[in-house]
């Protein structure tokens, strides 16, 4: 199957915009996005619902997290593990059959991987750290992501024309 230049340009543009918005939201809300607090609410994680609407969200979220985590106080381990966790979660989210199931992969993957990473870095109790990251992800992905889904349902044909699932 040959991909048209227009389709390719749209894909790259969507991915770039998603990466930029993710990065800006993370940095604007940096005090609750990073650090040693037991519950982190990364507002930008609401964008993890986007793989349901466009596959361009997979690389877009990956690059957005990679760039955002360059500013993380945790360091290189967060850049690597956070980005790879997001890549896995975004790919799994893209494969979800229902828009209300899309937040489950980022909640589960980040809860386990980022929770484990923060346990390793800060020596927080493992189960408590996994639980706290999971709670923050539920707030970001279901509460804020749910609002984003409601908005996208009204505008998806304009924002994501010819997308696979939208």
The string of secondary-structure elements, in order, is HHHHHH
Helical proportion? 55-70%
Global Rg: 15 Å
Q: Biggest sheet, in brief?
A: none
Instruction: Show unreliable segments.
Output: none
Name the CATH architecture.
Orthogonal Bundle
Please count the beta strands (DSSP E, at least 2 residues each): 0
Q: What is the distance, rounded to the nearest whole angstrom, between the alpha carbons of the first and last residues?
A: 20 Å
Indicate how many domains the architecture comprises. Answer: 1
Overall pLDDT metric:
92
Query: How does the helix and strand content classify structurally?
Result: mainly alpha
- What best-fitting shape do the alpha-carbon axes yield? globular
Number of separate helices = 6
Give the CATH class.
Mainly Alpha
> And the CATH topology?
Arp2/3 complex 21 kDa subunit ARPC3
State which percent range the strand residues make up: under 5%
Can you tell me about this structure?
This protein is mainly alpha-helical. It has one domain: Arp2/3 complex 21 kDa subunit ARPC3, CATH 1.10.1760. The chain has 6 helices and no strands. The longest helix is centred in the last third of the chain and has 34 residues, at 126-159. The relative contact order is 0.15.
């Amino acid at each position: 199957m040959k991909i048209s230049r227009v389709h390719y340009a749209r894909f790259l543009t969507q991915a770039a915009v998603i990466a930029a918005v993710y990065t800006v939201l993370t940095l604007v809300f940096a005090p609750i996005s990073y650090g040693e607090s037991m519950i982190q609410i990364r507002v930008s994680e609401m964008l993890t619902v986007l793989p349901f609407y466009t596959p361009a969200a997979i690389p877009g979220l990956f690059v957005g997290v990679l760039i955002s985590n360059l500013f993380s106080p945790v360091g290189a381990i967060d850049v690597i593990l956070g980005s790879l966790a997001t890549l896995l979660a975004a790919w799994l989210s893209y494969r979800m059959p229902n828009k209300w199931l899309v937040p489950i992969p980022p909640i589960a993957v980040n809860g386990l991987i980022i929770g484990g990473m923060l346990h390793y870095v800060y020596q927080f109790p493992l189960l408590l750290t996994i639980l706290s990251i999971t709670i923050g992800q539920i707030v970001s992905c279901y509460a804020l992501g749910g609002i984003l889904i409601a908005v996208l349902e009204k505008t998806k044909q304009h924002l994501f024309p010819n997308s696979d699932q939208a």
